[in-house]
Amino acid sequence: MSKITVAGVRQNVAELLEYSNETKKRNFLETVELQIGLKNYDPQRDKRFSGTVKLPSVPRPNMSICILGDQHDIDRAKHGGVDAMSADDLKKLNKNKKLIKKLARKYDAFVASDTLIKQIPRLLGPGLSKAGKFPTPVSHADDLSAKITEVKSTVKFQLKKVLCMGVAVGNVGMTPDQLIANIMLAINYLVSLLKKGWQNVGSLTIKATMSPPKRIY
């Protein structure tokens, strides 16, 4: 049973969008983040959760993606104007931790040909996994642009050592309905991961990059 109403979220979304699109409009597309504070949770003792969910609308359309591909997927990526690297390009990094870290920082997410994905730990070591950016597989039968949209629409909830986390749930260019649908789905999915559901939720806040935060729970 959800503890927050669509009407309550709608009011906060309307105020946030008004602030970002009218009161203080910025010259870039602000991301809207859902900030979560947990309670009655001990990251040392309780199981740390990790899960991903696909949102109905892409939260960050300008998210940077790199394809780690075989020749077929590199050609498809180039045709679609997406950055791509081959197995040879990855070999040239020589498992150099600094260079792999730099690669992981340069892109928000990676997609890899399913023919290549098994070789990635051998070619790059654990660098991408450590950064939480292990590639999503794509096969030749998949539509590459649909796969990229899927990756851009997916958000990850991962509990680390602290009881707060934030995930991108939208941007200020969205309609209120798109933003509300993303926020509600993200919250309900998060609650499903928690050991005691809503009893573990301390606070939920939405905030655009430059806006004041709006507490919704």
From TrEMBL:
Belongs to the universal ribosomal protein uL1 family. Pfam families: Ribosomal_L1. It comes from Dichotomopilus funicola. It comes from the Eukaryota. GO terms for biological process: ribosomal large subunit export from nucleus; translation. GO terms for cellular component: large ribosomal subunit. Keywords: Ribonucleoprotein, Ribosomal protein. InterPro entries: eL8/uL1-like, Ribosomal_uL1, Ribosomal_uL1-like, Ribosomal_uL1/biogenesis, Ribosomal_uL1_3-a/b-sand, Ribosomal_uL1_CS. The keyword Ribosomal protein applies. This is Ribosomal protein. The keyword Ribonucleoprotein applies. One of its GO terms (molecular function) is structural constituent of ribosome. PANTHER family: RIBOSOMAL PROTEIN L7AE FAMILY MEMBER (PTHR23105). PROSITE patterns: RIBOSOMAL_L1.
